[in-house]
Design a protein that fits this description.
Blueprint: H1 6-9, H2 20-23, H3 36-44, H4 53-57, H5 64-72, H6 76-84, H7 90-96, H8 100-104, H9 106-111, H10 117-131, E1 145-149, H11 153-164, E2 168-173, H12 181-184, H13 193-205, E3 209-212, H14 218-228, E4 231-234, E5 254-256, H15 257-268, E6 285-289, H16 293-305, E7 309-314, H17 341-344, E8 348-351, E9 353-361, E10 364-376, E11 385-388, E12 393-395, E13 399-402, E14 418-420, H18 423-426, H19 431-450
Helix pairs in contact: 3-5, 3-10, 5-6, 5-10, 6-10, 7-10, 11-19, 15-16
Length: 452
Amino acid sequence: MGNPKAFLEIHRQEAGYRPLHDRIHDFGEVEQTLNTRQRREQASRCMDCGVPFCHWACPLGNKAPEWNDALYKGDWELAFRLLASTNPFPEFTGRICPALCEKACVLNRFNHEPTTNRGDECAIIEAAFREGYIKPRVPVRNDKCVAVVGAGPAGLACADALNQMGFTVTVFEKNEAAGGLLRYGIPNFKLNKAIVDRRIDLMEKEGIVFKYGEEMNDDDLTTKLAKQFDAVVVATGTPTARDLRVPGRELRGVHFALELLSQQNRVLSGMEFAKEERITAKGKDVLVIGGGDTGSDCIGTAHRQGCKSVTQIEIMPKPVEGNDDPQNPWPNFPRTLKTTSSHEEGCTRRWNINTLEFLGENGKLTGVKVQEIDWQPNPQGGRPLMVEKGKPEVLKVQMVLLAMGFLKPEHPQYPENIFICGDAANGASLVVRAMASGRQIALNVNKYLKTK
C-alpha cells in the first residue's frame, strides 16, 4: 500500500447529502460527492490488512484494497480495470449498495470509521465514463444463443457476462424499458435513470438485443424459448409483494409500495396518467407499513409529492442503536438502527406495532387501527410469540403504503437448459447479490453449453 499509516492520520470523510430543504423539492440525487483530492485521501485509508474481510463480505468479491491503492496513487484507469474485473455495474452499486464491505472493514471494528469503498467505486466508474476508459467490447461470437428473461440487475449482469463469453444474447423484458428494480423500484433521488440508460446503451452497442413488452409465462419458457435458444436464463425477480389481509384492505388509499414508486418513476420519465389512476401523497397523512429500504423510499417519495405527514411502523422490535450488535458480531453485517436520508426529511418511526384494520368512509381510507405488541420467547422454541400490549389505537391517515417485502417465487421443473438466477431463485435480496447470482449463472450456462 502507498501509505500504510494513512488510517491513523486521516479520518473517514463523506460528502453527505444535499441540504434538506433543497432536496425535498425535486427528485435529483440526494448524495453529494467529494472532490478528487479528498477522494484520493479517503482511498489512502485502506489498510494493508492481513485478512481483507471486504473481499469475503462482498458478494461480487470486489478487491477494494487493490483499486483503493490505485486510486490513491492517481492511476484511475488501473483502479477502473481492477474494479470492473469483478463488478459489471459499479455505477449502480456505488449508489445503492449498503456496502457490506465497509461493515466488514477492519477499520470499522478499530474505530468505526471504515474505508469509503462505496463512494470510491462510484467515483472510479464515473471517472472511467468521463475519461473514455469505457468503450464497447464486441467479442468474437460462437454459434450458441441464449435468452435472458428479465432485465433487472441479475438479468443484466448475466447477459453482460454471457455476451463477453461470445454468446448471442437476447434479453426479454415485460416492461417498456430495462432496469427492473433499478428503474421501477428505486427512486430517482437515489439512482438517476440516466445512469441506467447509459449502461443499457453500452450493452446494446456490445451486441446484446433487448426486446420490450415481452412477458413470459412458464409455458412460454418451456415450449417456446427453450426450443428456440440453446439456453434460457430466468431472471424475473420477485414480482409478488407480501400483502396484509386485514379488514378494509379493499379501501381506496391502500397501495403496495411499488405501485407508488414505479408510477412516480414513470411520471418522471414523461409518462402520463389519468387523474383517477394517479397515486399521490399530496396533502395526505401517510402511513408506511414496513421498516426496510423500500419503506424508506416511500417516505422520501411522499415528501417530494407534498405529503402532510409520514409515519412508518414496523412489527419487529427496534434494532440496536450504535455500531455494535451483540447478537451479530463483527465482521458480519450489523443489524443496527438505520437512518436514511428520507428519514432525516421528517418521519415518525415506531416499532412493535401490529396492524389490525383499515378504516374508511364511502370506500376511502380514513384511518388504521393498530396495536402495540411485545415479543416473548416461545417455550417450544422457534419463532417468538407475539403478545398484545396496551389498547388498540387509531392512526388518522389517508394513504397506506405496504412495504413488507416480497414472496419468493415458486418454479416448476424446467428443462435442463433453463437456469434461474437472482431474486427469482433466492428470494428478495440486495442488488449486489442479484448481480453476483447473475454472473455465477452465466458461468453455469457456459459450462453446460460446452458439454453440448
